Each structure stands twice: as C-alpha cells, then as structure tokens.
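User: tokens in, sequence out, please.
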C-alpha cells in the first residue's frame, strides 16, 4: 500500500479502513484481491462481524415475546438497531423504520400494501427508465392488480433525467413516484428534492430506492422530503437478508398489512383480527434479528467514518477512475451524468463484457458484467451488457490502477 492513501484530503485514512475488512486481505488467482463489486454487495468490517458474532454467542433469543433475560436482551439489541437506523436516515423517530429483507421487499411492501389500497384505473405510477428491476416489477404487479398505469420518465444520453421530463411526466394523475436515488447501472444521482416538490404539488407520494445511496451519501429523509425510503443492509457493509423501509408514520398507520402472522397483530380471533401499529404491523413472523443487529453496527460504522467524508472519497475516486478509463482506446462510459457516484460502467469496442470480466478475475480484479438487473438501461444505450466497477469506502487509487492495467492486459489478449 503506498503512502498516497494515507491522510487523503477527503479526511479518510483508507489504509486504516482497509484493515477493518478482513476479506480484502486475500489473494485471488494468486493476485492480491481488488474488489470492485460493492454495488452488488459490499464486504463487512470487523465491527459488523463482531456484532453479529457477539449477538449469537451471548444475547440470542427470539424477540418481543419472552420474559426471560435473553429474550429481553435480544429485543433490546433489535430495537436498538431500529433506533440507530432511524438516526442513520435522520428519521423523526424509529416508529417509521420497518425491518425488511432488503430494498426489494421494501418496494414490494409499498406497492402491495399502499398500492392495492390506493391505486385504481386512471391513476398513474411514475418511475424512471434507470430503475433496477426491483423498482419496476413490483409496480407492474401493482398496476396489473389495480388497473393503474405505469408512466416512465426517460433519461438523456448521459443517463440523467432532464427537468422538462420530470415536469412532463409527474402529472395530475400521478399517485406515486418511485425513483432510485443512485442508479446502479449508471451511477446517476437523481434530484430527489426536486422530484418530491413536483410530486407533492400534484398530491402524489414519493418512494426513493436508496439501495446504492445508503453506503455512499448522507441520507436525510426529512431534508429530502420523501414519503418512503428503502435500502439494504448488505450494500452498506451489513449482513444480507436484512433491510429497512422507512415511511412517514401517518402513511404507514393508514396502510393495511401485507403479510399476516405472528407479531403483527393486536388480537386474533376466528371472527376477526385487529392489527398492531407500525412498524410491527409490517413485520410478520420472526425477523432476521442478527441481521438487524449487524445492519445497526454497519450504520454505526459508516456514521463513525462520517458520510460526508465517505461521499467526498467516492467522488475523488470516481474522478480518478473516469480520467484513467478515458485513456483506454475504444472505451465508452455508460452513465456520464454530472451528478454521479460510485459506478464506473463501460463497454469497449469489439470486446464482450463477459470475456473481459473473466480475464480481469484472473488478475484478481473483481468486477460485475451483465445487465445489472437494469435491462431497460441496456436497451436505452443499445448494449446487451456492460462491465461495471463499483466503488466501496475501502477502494483506493491503486485499485483503479490495477483495474486499468488488467484491462490493458486483457485487451492485448482479446484484440
Ligand atoms: N435497487 C437498486 C438501485 C439496486 O442496486 C439493488 C441491488 O442491486 C436493488 C434495488 C435491490 O436490492 P436488494 O437485492 O438488496 O433487495
């Protein structure tokens, strides 16, 4: 590791951060691992691994139902994680924080619970062309079930949403706008506050898919003004199988349950059942307790680094990566929006991304190739797949240099 990564002007000591992530210190195909796939899933710092290990070794039990000590400790740890995650997104309080399996489940929850109760023929659900499939398919299902229509905001050649397009598509029939904060195939940061202002002026709600934003930007749901914000634990250095849907409490309180089972009820009888208040109403069954504890630890870890500093480091690395990739002949970036984070996606003339990805892996460089669960984005840019390097807080300029060297080597073999 060169001294250059120490005392970055952005204020993060990345060499020190790397030591928090045991998985990074390994070789792959006899080369030191360069992990550039955090957009798909990020590695875990020791603090998260320890929090989960401690919980299982000491405090584990089911939550909410026991009088014994371990059950109380488990409940405390679970609810403490909820409070931490409320702080992480600057929610007014923890009652709007629902634990889910991830972003996908959060969007499905709103589409099924709110959507089925509030959408009907003539209503419009507005999404963008750059959504992950989990920002598209749940709304298609809700539209099929209710007779509402799906309206798509198109992007320009840089992969940004023009303001005129927002104004044109968020019309008087819009009931909800569901849009990603950062696009996973492009890196575009969408103007959420502007979208919220336009949607609210039409009486529509806004759901933000924060899967890619939660690890990279300070999130403040009150400043954004959105109504729902969904994100995943595993992309923000926490466990898989756990996520959060934050929702404005008054909206959640008016929404019907979508899964039935234990913990989401006030009283059950064969004549009829009454439901618990949120968040319990939306958390049927035994939750991923250790996952929540780990996700809380991940949020603490990121807040400890400082999300402003994390975002500044991401921007510095992205600029470095853009400049370096521009030196590769025949390389075209997919996604060049002026407001961008964390994603370096590209195609190279005459080279199939899968061949490139395989050769990069032989050099120890892990990137993702394919459609990145965003097939409409691929269609818009006229490609079937891209190569995507996605950044994490532990990546360095040396990682980008290794990527560039590995691409050059691969091209010498492929061309
Ligand atoms: N939305 C975006 C923008 C994503 O990048 C992803 C995952 O890649 C998802 C949603 C789905 O997240 P999960 O699979 O954690 O539910």
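Assistant: Sequence out:
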């Amino acid at each position: 590791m060169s001294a250059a990564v120490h005392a970055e002007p952005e204020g993060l000591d990345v060499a020190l951060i790397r030591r928090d992530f045991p998985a990074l210190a390994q070789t792959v195909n006899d080369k030191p691992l360069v992990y550039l796939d955090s957009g798909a899933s990020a590695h875990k710092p020791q603090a998260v691994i320890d929090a989960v290990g401690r919980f299982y070794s000491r405090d584990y039990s089911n939550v909410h139902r026991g009088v014994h000590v371990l059950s109380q400790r488990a409940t405390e740890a679970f609810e403490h994680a909820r409070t931490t995650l409320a702080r992480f997104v600057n929610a007014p309080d923890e009652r709007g924080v629902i634990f889910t399996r991830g972003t996908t489940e959060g969007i499905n929850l709103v589409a099924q619970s709110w959507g089925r109760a509030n959408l009907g023929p003539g209503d419009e659900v507005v999404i963008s062309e750059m959504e992950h499939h989990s920002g598209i398919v749940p709304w298609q299902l809700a539209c099929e079930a209710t007779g509402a229509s799906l309206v798509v905001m198109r992007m320009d050649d840089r992969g940004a949403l023009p303001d005129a397009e927002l104004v044109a598509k968020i019309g008087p029939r819009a009931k909800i706008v569901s849009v990603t904060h950062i696009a996973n195939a492009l890196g575009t940061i969408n103007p959420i506050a502007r979208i919220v202002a336009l949607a609210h002026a039409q009486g529509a709600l806004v759901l933000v898919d924060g899967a890619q934003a939660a690890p990279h930007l300070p999130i403040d749901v009150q400043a954004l003004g959105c109504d729902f914000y969904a994100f995943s634990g595993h992309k923000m250095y926490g466990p898989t199988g756990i996520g959060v849907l934050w929702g404005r409490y008054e909206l959640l309180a008016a929404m019907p349950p979508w899964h039935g089972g234990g913990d989401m009820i006030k009283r059950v009888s064969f004549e009829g059942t009454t439901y618990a208040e949120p968040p319990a109403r939306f958390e049927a069954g035994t939750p991923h307790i250790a996952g929540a504890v780990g996700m809380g630890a991940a949020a603490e870890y990121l807040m400890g680094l400082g999300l402003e500093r994390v975002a500044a480091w991401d921007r510095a690395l992205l600029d470095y990566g853009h400049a370096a990739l521009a030196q590769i002949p025949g390389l075209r970036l997919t996604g060049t929006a002026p407001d961008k984070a964390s994603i370096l996606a590209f195609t190279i003339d005459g080279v199939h991304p899968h061949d490139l990805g395989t050769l990069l892996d032989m050099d120890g460089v892990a990137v993702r190739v394919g459609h990145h669960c965003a097939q409409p984005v691929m269609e818009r840019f006229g490609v079937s797949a891209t190569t995507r390097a996605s950044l994490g807080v532990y990546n360095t300029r040396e990682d980008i240099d290794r990527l560039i060297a590995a691409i050059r080597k691969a091209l010498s073999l492929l061309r």
